[in-house]
Design brief:
Layout (H helix, E strand, L loop, with lengths): L1 H5 L3 E2 L11 E4 L5 E4 L7 H5 L8 H22 L1 H7 L4 H12 L10 E5 L2 E5 L13 E2 L3 H15 L2 H9 L4 H6 L16 E2 L5 E2 L1
Parallel strand pairs: 1-3
Antiparallel strand pairs: 2-3, 4-5, 4-6, 7-8
């Protein structure tokens, strides 16, 4: 048993726990110890039915990524329609957005929270944090919070306006998250964490 214990990494974290950036320590016998400290969620992050204010920028970027991805996919599938009409039918646009924001789907099921450098961030497709070292806690209220926020964007801005921005080759993250609208939540974040491909943080 001792031999087995010595042959594996020592992990100070379990899969259901949020963790910060790993701290690496080389032991005397050459093994590497990885310590992942658990993060503390605020009461709002734990209990609220709505997206916590501190995570709305991350959430907006995830939503924008999903919309961009689906529009690009449908344009590639329907090249003849796009070549003829220059755009998707309005009913198709509504169906696409509804399939992301309203339907009982799995679009946001692989999104969760991860503690990075002592701060809680969303982690999932469209964010650099997805590849940042650490454990992620997904499921729970996060998919529902994202769908609610997605519906807020389409309700306040409108499906057609979002699609028109896409047709103008405007990055939907810039349009939704960094614009001048009161729902452009990334403008309220004083310092945005940017992570390079190696997972090192840069402010």
């Amino acid at each position: 048993m001792v031999g087995i214990m010595r042959s594996v990494l020592v992990l100070c974290c379990v899969s259901a726990v949020l963790c910060q950036q790993p701290r690496y320590e080389t032991l005397k016998d050459g093994r590497q110890k990885i310590t992942l400290k658990s993060a503390n969620l605020t009461e709002e992050e734990q209990l609220s039915q709505h997206m916590p204010g501190t995570l709305k920028c991350d959430a907006c970027r995830i939503i924008a990524f999903q919309l961009m991805t689906r529009f690009n996919t449908e344009h590639k599938k329907r090249k003849s329609v796009i070549a003829k009409r220059g755009r998707l039918a309005e009913s198709d646009v509504l169906d696409i957005i509804e399939s992301i924001c309203k339907d009982d789907n799995e679009v946001f099921d692989n999104v969760g929270v991860k503690a990075i450098n002592g701060q809680t961030h969303l982690s999932g497709p469209g964010l650099e944090t997805e590849n940042f070292p650490g454990m992620m806690q997904g499921g729970g209220k996060w998919p529902g919070r994202l769908k609610e926020m997605c519906s807020m964007y389409t309700g306040d801005i409108g499906e057609e306006e979002i699609y028109k921005a896409f047709l103008k080759r405007i990055n939907l993250e810039d349009f939704l998250c960094w614009g001048i609208d009161e729902m452009a939540y990334c403008n309220t974040v004083k310092k945005q964490m940017k992570l390079n491909k190696k997972g090192k943080n840069e402010l």
